[in-house]
């Protein structure tokens, strides 16, 4: 569904600063971002405050990790001319929105977000009994709602956070979007769209409210979106009035789930720093070759003559990413009949993987050697993000009655 008064073509996503990225990060989120930047107006940021919620005890290298991650984004092809890149803590408006939203967020909503208990179970060695950690999903909601995006590209594990973001937006609009004489003001705003549009809007609103006709809703939304001369407030009123609520001040986003190829670690488990099974994007090529050479294969292939099953071998998952169909067929045939050895099998997927890394590393090196340009890119991105953030924040303050001008 098209979101309301939000910018219809905007997406927002963030990553915690984990430092240099590995192949799993690259084939997971990052490649997807690179693709999305050609289709959407993208805001991508380093969620450094989010890192503090779990790692405040060892935060000393947080800035270094952030810069390293940003270099990897750039080397992967995230382009500052199509995306706005920034660092969360350098757009302090996020903190104010977080605070304002915290006023209307029931504690129980935060306590029942699945990641809250899961992470506490999983990260037993960390102190997660803090106010900051409980607020993790709310801070994320502020990150998102700030930019009124239509969609938020995230992995499966973050869907619950987008869901609570929607609930918070709804609750906020419900509490603060009901101004006195809302209906009269919405009707007055409608007149400004002209007779024809007003008639269309009424008709579509009726069809949506009486029979849940989504197409009618879309038509009316599209009409509103194309109106150049409505004020922001009137536009929000009309979006809200259409659906039967109050003014739509904050916009409910949707999770944009993307199919990403399964990128296993060297041992076949998920690739993750905590499992020590990663291939780093900027790791020396010789080390990478050695890691692949020694990675385990199907244990059934004890001797060269023993046939194996690719599906039981992590090397096969790499072939699925790096090899074309005929090579994949060669692996299937050769492995199951013991026609090929594991070393030659690995060799075939190693070359394209190395080629990818080499290109990446060369681009990364250019940014490493020119830290000023990286800082400049982030500086520009922060300024751009802040100017949008200020607008949302001003509307939010106004809606809550904090108007002192
Ligand atoms: N919590 C996200 C993660 O761990 C990172 C994040 C913070 C984020 N704020 C966000 C993602 C806003 C999308 C939108 O991956
Ligand atoms: Fe794995 Fe290839 Fe060896 Fe089969 S031949 S076990 S797919 S490395």
Fold and architecture overview:
- With 405 residues, this protein is mainly alpha-helical.
- The protein has three domains: 7-177 and 251-260 and 370-399, 3-Layer(aba) Sandwich (Rossmann fold); 182-242, no CATH class; 282-367, Tyrosyl-Transfer RNA Synthetase (Orthogonal Bundle).
- The protein is 57% helix and 6% strand.
- The protein is built from 18 helices and five strands.
- The chain has helices at residues 23-36, 48-55, 62-76, 93-102, 107-111, 114-122, 131-134, 136-145, 159-176, 182-191, 195-211, 214-225, 232-243, 285-293, 314-322, 325-336, 342-368, 371-399; strands spanning 10-15, 41-46, 83-87, 151-154, 254-257.
- It has a three-stranded parallel beta sheet.
- β1, α1 (23-36) and β2 (41-46) form a beta-alpha-beta unit.
- α3 packs across α17.
- It is elongated and about 80 Å long.
- The two termini are 37 Å apart.
- The model has no long low-confidence stretch (mean pLDDT 93).
- The structure holds tryptophan and iron/sulfur cluster.
């Amino acid at each position: 569904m098209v979101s309301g008064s939000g910018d219809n073509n905007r997406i927002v996503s963030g990553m915690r600063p984990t430092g240099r990225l590995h192949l799993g990060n690259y084939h997971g989120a990052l490649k997807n971002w690179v693709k999305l930047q050609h289709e959407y107006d993208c805001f991508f940021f380093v969620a450094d405050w989010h890192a503090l919620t779990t790692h405040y005890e060892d935060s000393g290298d947080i800035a270094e990790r952030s810069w390293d991650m940003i270099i990897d984004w750039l080397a992967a092809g995230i382009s500052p001319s199509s995306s706005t890149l920034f660092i969360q803590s350098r757009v302090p408006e996020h903190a104010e929105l977080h605070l304002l939203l915290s006023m209307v967020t029931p504690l129980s909503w935060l306590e029942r977000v699945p990641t809250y208990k899961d992470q506490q179970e999983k990260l037993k060695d960390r102190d997660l009994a803090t106010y900051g950690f409980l607020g993790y999903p709310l801070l994320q909601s502020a990150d998102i709602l700030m930019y009124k995006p239509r969609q938020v590209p995230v992995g499966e594990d973050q869907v619950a956070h987008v869901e609570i973001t929607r609930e918070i937006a709804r609750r906020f609009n419900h509490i603060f979007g009901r101004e006195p004489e809302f209906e009269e003001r919405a009707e007055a705003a409608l007149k400004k769209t002209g007779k024809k549009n007003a008639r269309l809007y009424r008709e579509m609103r009726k069809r949506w409210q009486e029979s849940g006709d989504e197409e009618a809703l879309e038509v009316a939304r599209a009409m509103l979106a194309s109106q150049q001369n409505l004020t922001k407030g009137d536009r929000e009123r009309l979006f809200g009035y259409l659906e039967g609520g109050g003014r739509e001040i904050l916009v409910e986003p949707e999770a944009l789930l993307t199919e990403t190829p399964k990128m296993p670690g060297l041992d076949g488990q998920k690739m993750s720093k905590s499992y020590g099974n990663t291939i780093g994007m900027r790791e020396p090529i010789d080390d990478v070759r050695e890691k692949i050479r020694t990675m385990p294969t199907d244990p059934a292939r004890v001797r060269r003559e023993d046939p194996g099953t690719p599906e039981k071998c992590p090397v096969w998952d790499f072939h699925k990413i790096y090899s074309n169909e005929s090579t994949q067929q060669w692996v299937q045939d050769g492995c199951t009949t013991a026609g090929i050895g594991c070393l030659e099998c690995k060799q075939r997927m190693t070359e394209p993987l190395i080629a990818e890394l080499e290109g990446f590393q060369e681009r990364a090196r250019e940014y490493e050697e020119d830290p000023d340009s990286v800082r400049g890119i982030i500086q520009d991105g922060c300024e751009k993000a802040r100017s949008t953030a200020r607008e949302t924040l001003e509307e939010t303050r106004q809606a809550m009655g904090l108007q002192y001008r």
